[in-house]
């Protein structure tokens, strides 16, 4: 469905969006299967409506949000770079609102230090949750430090390219943290919980030496199996020779806004 | 080897020339996946990540031909069907695909970036495994000619037993190319493991069928 949003010119200057077809047909969403084409092909039976998101934990005012109420908020369109840990990248015109809005409404307690996110579990609608080989433990869980979650760049997206989120992109609501690897962007969120301890995160549980809690985009810190210095832009539409790699930027190009969050930290150790 | 003894027979000569034709045909058919994928890439029909698809397709065919070349001996010993005459062609196809795969990785994918390539080849087991397999099949391809066989004599067999190590490295490399343990590379690894374990069987079991003939 079409979704109105106010373009936020502050973000995305000079970026060319990845074609809609590629944004919606080249996805990692293992709940629907392991192939990049699986989410688009196998998410037709998923029902993102009705939907609620529970926000609770260490807050004064826990709330359950209905998706229709969230869609009726003033929404912004932001053109963000998206860098996958697999060394490919896109530019996506998201529609959403800052996560900080919700967090302020539920009034975090002083003891809250982290935010834990949880995806939906519906094996009957998500064929990838029903496989034989172990994939990830469901639900898919992710987490942010509270200051990361409150950062104005961190949004909950409910749409892209002027319409509500397609199922394969994490309908009806997902997290977008543009300076982190894509796997931090937990999809089809049902619960957001504030905690005082660092929450477990899905990929970190699966392979802690390969996927850290922070997962900040960092060309200096390689994945054990490949370099993160460069990336393959998706959908460059030049066939073999049009899709040349380009350098990956520290914090995916958002260092000016977010580097201060990590002042004094060793980002090689806390990768 | 056995064909040589009956060279004088007319039907045998005819058979030999058809072996030659079949061999050429095998090379031609064997290279079709590479040519077809390349053509699709040029026509921009490999999807949004064409280099990655091309690279993976070439690697997949390299391991397929390596497996096929390793099937020749068990097939002959267990069923009596001998495809020995085509084994070199299968092995060389594996080499060519490995060469294309590495070329695409070095050139199209990494853009000849020396620093990245050096780090990959020296530090990452995933790449080291692949490179080891490639180096081995390169040595085997370079010595897959009559001159090398004469020249190396008995050592030729020992050198070419390295193919087992190449198979092992290739299978591990394939498994490591995914973030998770996946069915497809696992299946190839199981087939590869069975073909390698077969070589450990005592001769008495392996050659029973040949002896009966």
From TrEMBL, chain B:
<keyword id="KW-0349">Heme</keyword>
<dbReference type="GO" id="GO:0016679">
    <property type="term" value="F:oxidoreductase activity, acting on diphenols and related substances as donors"/>
</dbReference>
<feature type="transmembrane region" description="Helical">
    <location>
        <begin position="161"/>
        <end position="180"/>
    </location>
</feature>
<dbReference type="InterPro" id="IPR022837">
    <property type="entry name" value="MsrQ-like"/>
</dbReference>
<keyword id="KW-0288">FMN</keyword>
<keyword id="KW-0479">Metal-binding</keyword>
<dbReference type="Pfam" id="PF01794">
    <property type="entry name" value="Ferric_reduct"/>
</dbReference>
<feature type="transmembrane region" description="Helical">
    <location>
        <begin position="58"/>
        <end position="78"/>
    </location>
</feature>
<keyword id="KW-0812">Transmembrane</keyword>
<keyword id="KW-0813">Transport</keyword>
<feature type="transmembrane region" description="Helical">
    <location>
        <begin position="90"/>
        <end position="108"/>
    </location>
</feature>
<dbReference type="GO" id="GO:0030091">
    <property type="term" value="P:protein repair"/>
</dbReference>
<dbReference type="GO" id="GO:0020037">
    <property type="term" value="F:heme binding"/>
</dbReference>
<feature type="transmembrane region" description="Helical">
    <location>
        <begin position="21"/>
        <end position="43"/>
    </location>
</feature>
<comment type="function">
    <text>Part of the MsrPQ system that repairs oxidized periplasmic proteins containing methionine sulfoxide residues (Met-O), using respiratory chain electrons. Thus protects these proteins from oxidative-stress damage caused by reactive species of oxygen and chlorine generated by the host defense mechanisms. MsrPQ is essential for the maintenance of envelope integrity under bleach stress, rescuing a wide series of structurally unrelated periplasmic proteins from methionine oxidation.</text>
</comment>
<feature type="transmembrane region" description="Helical">
    <location>
        <begin position="128"/>
        <end position="149"/>
    </location>
</feature>
<keyword id="KW-1003">Cell membrane</keyword>
<keyword id="KW-0472">Membrane</keyword>
<comment type="subunit">
    <text>Heterodimer of a catalytic subunit (MsrP) and a heme-binding subunit (MsrQ).</text>
</comment>
<keyword id="KW-0285">Flavoprotein</keyword>
<keyword id="KW-0249">Electron transport</keyword>
<keyword id="KW-0408">Iron</keyword>
<comment type="similarity">
    <text>Belongs to the MsrQ family.</text>
</comment>
<dbReference type="GO" id="GO:0005886">
    <property type="term" value="C:plasma membrane"/>
</dbReference>
<dbReference type="GO" id="GO:0010181">
    <property type="term" value="F:FMN binding"/>
</dbReference>
<feature type="domain" description="Ferric oxidoreductase">
    <location>
        <begin position="58"/>
        <end position="168"/>
    </location>
</feature>
<protein>
    <recommendedName>
        <fullName>Protein-methionine-sulfoxide reductase heme-binding subunit MsrQ</fullName>
    </recommendedName>
</protein>
<dbReference type="GO" id="GO:0046872">
    <property type="term" value="F:metal ion binding"/>
</dbReference>
<dbReference type="GO" id="GO:0009055">
    <property type="term" value="F:electron transfer activity"/>
</dbReference>
<dbReference type="InterPro" id="IPR013130">
    <property type="entry name" value="Fe3_Rdtase_TM_dom"/>
</dbReference>
<feature type="transmembrane region" description="Helical">
    <location>
        <begin position="186"/>
        <end position="205"/>
    </location>
</feature>
<keyword id="KW-1133">Transmembrane helix</keyword>
